[in-house]
Amino acid sequence: MSPAPKDVLGYKPPDGGWGWMVVFGAHISIGFAYSTPKALSIFFKEIQMDLGASYSEIAWISSIMLAVMYAGGPVSSVLVTRFGSRPIVMTGGLMCGVSMATASFGSSIIYLYFCIGIIGGCGLSLNLNASLTIISKYFLVKRPLANGLAMAGSPVFLCFLAPVNQYLLARFGWRGSLLILGGMMLNCCVAGALMRPVTPPDKWTAFAPQTKVEQPNEHNTKIKRNFGRNAKKFLDLSFFKDRGFVIYLIGNVMFIFGAYAPIVFLSAYAINQGVEKYSAAYLLSIMGFVDMFIRPATGLIANSKWIRPRIQYFFSFAMVFNGTCHLLCPLIKSYAFLVVYAAFFGIGFGMVFALIFECLMDLMGSQRFPSAVGLVTIVECFPMLLGPPAAGLLVDVFGDYKYLFFMCGSVIVTGGLFLFVMNIYNYHMLDKEKAAKNNEQGQKDTENQDQAKTSEVEMEQTERNGAQQDVENAETVEI
Fold first, then answer.
1. Residue 449 domain flag
2. N or C: at which end does the chain have fewer Cβ atoms within 10 angstroms?
3. Which domain, by its residues, includes 31?
4. Is residue 83 assigned to a domain?
5. Comparing C-alpha atoms, which of 253, 252, 246, 245 is closest to residue 383?
6. Neighbours of 479 (CB within 10 A)
7. pLDDT for the residue 211
8. How far apart are CA 100 and CA 206, in angstroms?
9. How many domains does the chain contain in total?
């Protein structure tokens, strides 16, 4: 199997030290980024009754928020490259807090789309990409573990937010709950403060040789030129020429389309089955509780010498496992089995999201990862936007939730099988291309050696001819 591309960072990542504090900050930032759109589903029933919205209309709130979060990937990546992760995460946290506070005054579903979906989604986008990027700069050898711990923020916060939101809803209504949630999300600013830039240990500043001082105009021109170059880099469509990237992207799009609808409608499905509201909300907590342990555990497993070279196949297995859980869910009729489903859902979901960005880093390397993740997120915003509303439309049309789970499960399983088969093909082609390249290089080396030997023979022949000519000239002179 072909190894991952070599990283050209210009320094050796510390793989620890302050990096673990950065992981903690990323844990908070990513936790809010992924758990908030899911935990908001607790309020959907009350918002639906208050504003008179349908299932598909109410599902657009989380869908728009997630889509904007993913679509803002390239812009966030460019800003992170220009300003660093710390100010970007702090800005994103401020936007998230403001979005929830302003949404609490909403009187129409369109207003909630704008406040929660667009403003909040932009804030989450800044949080997510900046956190992922700085982890790739602090870690290399322990990167799967660091990613697993950071991505564990999503289930930890979901486990916490689901019952808290249910309590806030019962105590303050959905408007007061959104206001309090906005205040909680300001903690992302604190998380951003932990993300100080990487300082290479071999970076000498005191003894650096003096360089020519640039004039202000030259300096500004250089900054603009570099910023434009970075902007072009982070929207680089040449990634579509990379076979491994295209395979990863197609499988990922299929997963994202079916990933979030079961979470958005899980509580409503349980209530429809006759489960009490608090017990229905606890299903999300159970899923999150299992998920929080699965993600770091998956990171440890993926970091092992047996799994890391085969991490793309491990990712495929996680997707198939996740989709199979959804296919079996409509067969469940009791709350006890719903708890079992939530636990297995947490296992599958946690495995996928512990690996989803690590697999992209494995394919692209840390140097190209910010560019690649920006392009991936902007493509994924479309299935993210359409998935939950499409599932809600099925509920509106058929009046039954089972078609929702059948659709999501079948799409995810198909995506996992596609990744498995195509990765076998991709690695086979890479080995074949590598062998052909080695043969071509060997032929070139042989030709060069033959040319060198021919040149040596010609030189020796020339020297002999020159010596013979000198002898003949000497004999002629004597005569």
1. no
2. C
3. 19-199+235-433
4. yes
5. 253
6. 4
7. 40
8. 47
9. 1
Task: Name the token pair of 327.
Answer: 């296919």
Q: Which residue matches tokens 């636990």? A: 343
- What is this structure's pTM? 0.67
Smallest CA-to-CA distance from 329 within 402, 237, 396 is with 402
- Tell me how far apart the alpha carbons of residues 284 and 158 are, in angstroms, rounded to a whole number: 7
What is the reported pLDDT for 320?
94
Q: Does residue 227 form part of some domain?
A: no
Cα 150 from Cα 22, distance rounded (Å): 9
- Helix then strand count (H, E) for the chain reads 18, 0
Phi, psi angle pair for 105, to nearest 5°: -95, 10
What is the C-alpha to C-alpha distance for residues 258 and 68, in angstroms, rounded to an integer?
17
Cα–Cα distances in Å, from 323 out to 85, 248, 292? Answer: 34, 17, 19
The answer to whether residue 441 is domain-embedded is no
- The pLDDT value recorded for residue 416 is 92
DSSP secondary structure, 81-143, as one string: HHH-HHHHHHHHHHHHHHHHHHHTT--SHHHHIIIIIIIIHHHHHHHHHHHHHHHHHH-STTH
First vs last C-alpha separation in the chain: 76
List Cα–Cα distances, 96 to 7, 70, 190, in angstroms: 34, 15, 13
- Count of all residues that appear for the chain in the document: 479
CATH number at residue 144: 1.20.1250.20
Averages of pLDDT over runs of 10 residues in the chain (479 residues) are 47 74 88 82 82 78 82 78 85 90 87 89 86 80 78 78 83 88 89 80 45 45 52 64 88 90 84 82 82 82 81 90 91 86 90 85 76 79 82 83 90 93 86 80 71 68 65 57
For residue 396 the two structure tokens come to 């509106």
Q: Is the distance from CB of 134 to CB of 373 less than 8 angstroms?
A: no
